[in-house]
Amino acid sequence: MSITSDYKKEIMDAAHNERIKLALSRAIASYRTNTNNALKKFPHTIKLAEEVLEIKQQAMGNMETLAKQACDALQENHGKGYIAKTAQDALDIIDGLVGKGKLIVKGKSMTAEEIGLRHHLEAKGNEVYETDLGEFIIQKQDAKPMHILSPAIHVPKEDVAKLFSKITGKDLKPDIETLVATARALLREQYFKADIGMSGANVVSADTGTMFIIENEGNIRLTTGAPPIHIALIGMEKLVPTLGDAFKVAEVTWRYANYTVPSYVNMVSGPSKTGDIEKVTTYGAHGPKEVHVIFMDAGRTELAKDPILRQALYCLRCGGCLYECPVFAYTAGHFGDKYFTGIGAVWAYMLNENEEKGAAMAYTCLTCGRCKVRCPMQIDVPAMMMELRKRVAEGEKKTD
Ligand code: SF4
Ligand code: SF4
Fold this sequence. Notes:
By secondary structure, the chain is of the alpha/beta class. It is built from 19 helices and twelve strands. The chain is globular, with a radius of gyration of 21 Å. The two termini are 34 Å apart. Bound molecules: iron/sulfur cluster (2 copies). Residues 324-327, 341-342, 365-371, 381-382 line the site of one iron/sulfur cluster.
């Protein structure tokens, strides 16, 4: 069977899956209420989003310079920055840092998902714990994430109870508080036993080399704070010139991701240090002694040259568009590859070397434009889909 007919079957099966419909209808209602309340409470976010769009538009033409600047800043902060031209380069750098037989706690990262990092590390003989609750559920189900922020969005609480009952050997009821407490108990000790903590980042300021990692669960604090080594894998499109720019991007991201304010915004610029004994700066205090940050290109600088499809790089990964997409409401991440819906089609076709899937996704999109209305970056998905379809028809990948 070809990938296209596999995909057609997958998406039709998903559309008839009542569990997906149930879980998504609950999530969509809650997302809309939360985001509308957040935007009502902080109306300046709309204007701020316009500023952020300008920041992103300028940064996209300058990614390599920004990455070099961030590496220099990290070096000054006693961390280490790397530029990976390809996904394989990123994996090679990570292999060199991790080695084999390590215990790794890992935060959710779409860039890691893009290059299949967890499976890669496991294949090399490492033990990896996903620490985001949704991602932990997906890992234990041996499934694929179905949303960029809420990977287990399609899994109703009844199914989580069954899964956790199997893991713990206890008869757990579908009570969300109990399920969250169960995950906490299962993961707690791993943070302090782990050799390495891994994360992505929502935005990075090139001038200070500071990674902003937005979260609510507290798993990122532990992942990036408890183990002796922190490794971050970050797509180069996350770079902006200044710390001030990064604050703006962070605020717009969390507001459209449905939060008035998140519980935590982690800012990491280098390893932990102290000067408390005789004012001698010593690295490796309570937090990691080593911080390694890999900025991955993997097609992004090429895509930035594309007059229409470059918009895909402005994406903040707030996830807002997914809740508005009528196809996603029925199929969840089955309308996706590593990234989802129309914008995911661009990533699949242009970046993730999955042209056939990207093409099929471009034709799954209804070009209704509901995503564009919600998107803080006003990303014109229908226009990108028409362009992608044209290229598919012409058998062409990139514009020069
Ligand atoms: S334009 Fe496509 S991706 Fe956007 S909401 Fe409509 S169907 Fe979904
Ligand atoms: S396309 Fe827009 S709405 Fe969707 S995740 Fe990206 S920034 Fe958010």
